[in-house]
Amino acid sequence: MSSDYVTQKGQPFDRAAFESLLRRKVFLWQSFEPYGSVKGLFDYGPPLESLENEIIQIWREHFIRTEKMMALKCSMLTPYEVLKTSGHVDRFADFMCKDPKTGEILRTDHLIADVLEARLRSDKEARGEQVAEKEEDPKLKKKKAKAAKGAVKLDDAVRDEYNHVLAVLDDYTGEGMGELIKKYDIRNPTTGNEVEPPVSVNLMFQTQIGASSNAPAFLRPETAQGQFLSFQKLFEFSDGQLPFASASIGYSFRNELSPRAGLLRVREFLMAEIEHFVDPEGGKKHPKFSAVKDIKLPLLSRTTQSSGSTKPEYVAIGDAVASKLVDNETLGYFLVRIMQFMQKIGIDMNKLRFRQHMENEMAHYASDCWDCELLNSYGWTECVGCADRSAYDLSVHTKATGVPLSARETLKEPYEVEEWVAVLDKKKSGPKFKKAAKDVENALDALAQDMKEKLSLDMEKNGKVELGVESVEGGKVELEKDVVTFEKQKRMVTTREYVPNVIEPSFGIGRILYSLMEHSYWTREADEARSVLSFPPSVAPIKVLVVPLQRDVRFKPLVEQLEAKLDAKHISYRVDQSGVSIGKRYSRNDELGIPFGITVDFESIEDNTFTLRDRDSTKQVRASEHDIVRAISRMIKGKETWEEVAARLPAFETSQE
Ligand SMILES: Nc1ncnc2c1ncn2[C@@H]1O[C@H](COP(=O)(O)OP(=O)(O)OP(=O)(O)O)[C@@H](O)[C@H]1O
Predict the structure, then answer these.
(1) Does ligand 1 come within 6 angstroms of the Cβ of 266?
(2) Which of 26, 31, 307, 433 has its CA 20 to 30 A from that of 574?
């Protein structure tokens, strides 16, 4: 993949150089390095910690504040029963294969996909097919020619078979994948060794709460369950009004079998999840949908994928919902808001698409699901899952606990119903059934209407009925006419009780951060060694670089004055007083993605003016301290662009670059 992938300037993306930059500038590293590091765990250094913080702030503003969501902080340690009910204990598992010679563990579906995709790529190269987007690029051409040398051609039938297997890989059981491995002689790609048959492994980290092992628990694999279990409290907080949404930003943990691709598949990661609760009656409309209906989204539908194409179509979300391509307004509204968020933080819009889940990929209860995928040098990567989870979660927790997680609505027009009612004479049932009396009462309450009607007929015929409740004396409880009667009664219905449906956009912040860093990365044409991270001013980890022209005590008061001004405006900055040339200092800081540089020079001492440099264009203007700090502040807030600032402040020509 990385050979086809280009930077925002159309240059071939050099992942080794990019990763070296991230290491050099301490963006991130594998955790516990002095102890030999642990796969799938990363520490963030100052630039990445700060970048994440900026993105979280934008996320909070874009979703929580603007959409009036209810932010929650729920526990990460989760009792066994909760995750048993949600289905995670039984189903949150992947199949793994072991390389018996090296002990390496490989995720089975990834292993099969990687090997078959590599063979298909090799086949494409052998047939000289166009795999690169920028065919005319001589570097890419050279790379392609090199790759084609060892390429292996496939028979047409084999190629079709591989493509089919890849399309339906999610449908395979462990046994089925084991057969594929044998049939296609799939081996560990790094060692060439045969692998052992697939074994299912649950992905949750298990622990216990307290000293006793009677209370097994897990580190949560998603933030969602805590939000579902808080439903009743949120419903009251929203004054019994639906729709409403909760949101939670917090860590989740998955014991991934083969963590890889840097931040893209890790074992501990920050998630930002929204649970939007909506009345299923009335088509899951969204009150703000009409404001976004004309916005076009790159949608890669199920039908397009089935035809073998990976090219999304730009469709107005209003049309997509009207044609039922996207199931409902609420889901459609969130797809738009996700795209707008990505645009705000600087994601390259040419590297974003929404891919609809195939039927076999979706959970059985989901009615529609779209992933927001970002293209990076590892390929298209799911960064946000946006699913309509129907009433599944609230229903299963209600069933397991008996605590209703449902909404009530007062009806505008109450209506009368006639219902079968079981009338129990408690004065008689208590002494008669003793300890089983409560069970008898509950069993009668739980009877459906048709059962009550049937029992009333049985009672009339036989003078008694049997309930599925064990009596104290043994055998099933029998109820006679004097204890219970079945009657039809009229009742006014004034409220409607229902289980809301849930639309869930679920963001993996680490994957977004990584893709953003790749999308922001490019090198100056004149000098390949000079790399730049073009973060938008609003998300850049540090906003300003202050550079005194040289080490000179006369600059000190001016630097201090600038620092005080930037502090007062809450603008983050870095002062670079090192002795190296100004050009070098600028380019070192371009690598940190600092969007603006203020230079303090001899003229500053004379007239208190400074130069302001734009990272991306390297253009400079000269103005008073007040004007410069104000311009920076406005650009960070998105109130002005560099082009607008450069048009109104005097240009400054320099040969320092
Ligand atoms: N191991 C991981 N490392 C980093 N981010 C992850 C990981 N697993 C999931 N995410 C993020 O959490 C989001 C929501 O999780 P979800 O359960 O939908 O992922 P998933 O479908 O299991 O992902 P995948 O199929 O890639 O394992 C994903 O879109 C992704 O951004």
Answers:
(1) yes
(2) 31
